[in-house]
Amino acid sequence: MKKLFLFLLLASFSVQAQYKIKGELNPPKKYNWIILYKIEGARQVFVKSESLKKTSKVINGKKTEVSNFEFTLPANAKAGSYRVSYKTEGGGFADFLFNKENISFTFNPEKAEETIQFYQSKENKLYQEYINTVSTQQYKTDSLQVAYLKTPQPKTANLYKAQLSKIAALQKQYLAKSKGLMVHSFIKATNRYNSPTISKDPQAYLKSINDHFFDTIDFTNTALYNSSFIIDRITDYVFYMNYSDDAKKQNELHKEAVQTVLEKAKSQAFKKDILEFLITQFVNSRNIDFADYLMKTYYQKLPVAIQNKEFVSSFNEKTIVSIGRTAPEITWKENGKEYKLSTINDAQNYVLVFWSTGCSHCLREIPVLYKNTQNSKNTKVIAFSLENNDKDWKKHIQKYPKWHNVIGLKKWENPTARAYQIYSTPTYIVLDKNKKIIAKPETLDEVRKIVKYLDQ
Question: What is the mean pLDDT of residues 394-410?
């Protein structure tokens, strides 16, 4: 009897020790799956996935369809920042804090961050309450600062001081409320710097925010580190707080901003994560030169043991044919003569087009391209045809005597096609005289406009 009682007690404890993460997407949209991740540094680590279940509920007296999900976490699930993701591309996710409690929330999947609402969770409800309350007061503070910059008045300056006192009191109140909770670190770090006296010009105002941007953020705090918080702040600082319309000035601002960020990150592992994040962002925004700068100046100087070989390999693969890169070498024979892309010098610019005689789009576009380029003053075409054999190719190239015509056998498996990451034909790449990639037009009309511009 005692054994049975002990078994039932343990079973009851086991059930109670599990935690439920429940969510609702409203409206449901066309999403079928949801994935749960744990945030660790700048990475998201897979936990589990579930299918979304569509149900109906009454909202404001109206029957509404929603999508629901529920994850069960074990008693030993790590506390920290978690993410539910429902889109593979384009950023569809919602973040929350988990600290050994049941959580339920709802959000609109098209704008999750702005619409997320927590029904159950002491940590998340308190943080959301804090954000909503303090952001309202911060908006009033910023409005007074802007009003003063437009029309300086002592009354506005006095109201600004009073507003600072309100924010300070609220911050103190929420720090006390959150004592002993995980969210305490986030409330402390979210507190934005405000100059103790109202700024008299826009430059001084922006400089004060920039100079004190990371004052309240502890880069060694485990809770902040294992969340998207610091990475989000780094994004704001590097890409928005340090912005200029002048390309040269922007480059210098980026360098200074990255240096500031890396000086804050004492951990080499976190520096690696930050650099991988920033390099990826610059690659995605097609700023390959700055991505290269980060790789050479910082990433490659990290301890070899922590460098990610897969990341470096992926970086090289993704950027090998990016705008700004020197085009990979191509060698070919033409009328018995050996040619090399790197040494050819019969034009100021080149249009490198990958095409195929078996591609219907190519057969329509290639004759038009020839017509638009055969009399070009500064641009010559190198037509690289992906084929299984040279039979049809030999017939077609008779129509294009003013081009450099190159054949690549084995079609998609051709080494040059793979080096240039050719997945469809026709693909156009524009090079300068040094064979540096200067454009990757997606349409024939774009090619025509570029050639016309280069001929001016």
Answer: 94
Helices (H), 17-153: 112-115, 122-150
Give how far Cα 101 sits from Cα of 79, 84, 93, 126, 308, Å: 9, 17, 21, 14, 35
Place 90 in a pLDDT band, splitting at 50, 70 and 90.
low
For residue 257, give the amino acid letter. A
List, for residues 327-383, the tens digit of each pLDDT value. Answer: 999 999 998 899 999 999 999 999 999 999 999 999 999 999 999 998 999 999 999
pLDDT class of 12 with cuts at 50, 70, 90: very low
Whether 252 and 237 have beta carbons less than 8 Å apart is answered as no
- The residue ranges of every structural domain in the chain are 17-118, 125-319, 331-454
Distance CA 453, CA 335 (A): 31
Residue with tokens 């990016």: 322
Residue whose entry in the numeric block shows the structure tokens 């990341």: 311
Task: Report the top-level CATH class of 331-454.
Answer: alpha beta
Cβ atoms within 10 Å of 276's Cβ, excluding its own? 21
Q: How far is CA 184 from the centre of its chain?
A: 28
Contact 371, 449 (CB under 8 A): no
The mean per-residue pLDDT over the stretch 133-137 comes to 95
Residue 52 above 60 pLDDT? yes
- Identity at 94, one-letter amino acid code: A
Burial of 336 (0-12, 13-18, 19+ CB in 10 A): exposed
Question: What CATH number should be reported for the domain whose range is 17-118?
Answer: 2.60.40
**245: amino acid identity, one letter:** D
Contacts of 261 (CB under 8 A, 6+ apart): 234, 237, 238, 274
Same fold yes or no, 17-118 and 331-454: no
